[in-house]
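quick one if you have a minute, typing this from the bus. theres a chain ive been looking at and ive put its sequence and its fold in token form underneath. please have a look and point out which stretches look like helix strand or loop to you. anything you notice is useful, everything is just below.

***
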Amino acid sequence: MFLLTAVGSPILFADIVDGNFEAGWPGYLSGDFASGYTPVTPGGGDHSLYPEGAFTVTTDPHLVHNLWSSFGDHTTGTGQMMIVNGDTQNGVVVWAGHNSAPLAPGEYTFSAWVASLYPTNPANLTFSVDDLRLGNFTASATPGLWQQFSQTFTITSANPTFGIVNLNTQANGNDFAIDDIHLEQVPEAGFYSALALNLGGLLLFVRRRRKA
């Protein structure tokens, strides 16, 4: 019997709780994530997200603002996403979330997808984990174009808080959607070489069995 073994850790998925927002509005109400923005219940019509510094979770930006483009979420095109009218106050947390289980020490990649809702003054977002600033990302001026922010970092606590802040305080435009916020552990050195070695051994074992 041939037994696969591996050196180093495999890729682990320490998913952000409801990072794809598929729990919908109940996900926010149950504490899956937090926000310093004003929550607006979805279903209030295409003027409901007119106030600056407000957000909701729904399937299409045009449902909550008549001037915003109509497009689907990044995940499936028909699912949920966080929809945001950028705040005019500096430093307000757009989204704050956490991982689904304690994290082991090591390197992780944090990522999120962002799309503008309106072409004027795209959002300039900064991403962080606890007190560590991971980097900035400016959304595209093309509404509905999903683009990814991604950054690798070394974990320092088992249960960190991840955050997104919008540095743009322009009232005109500055509207965006967020989806598929994700955390992935980076495999230790030697994992892929060990995997290739194991697969090679398995193929050799199969060939010998066929010849027998």
The beta strands are 38-39, 54-58, 81-85, 93-98, 107-116, 124-129, 132-138, 147-154, 161-166, 175-185. Residues 11 and 187 are 5 Å apart (CA to CA). The first helix runs from residue 24 to 29.
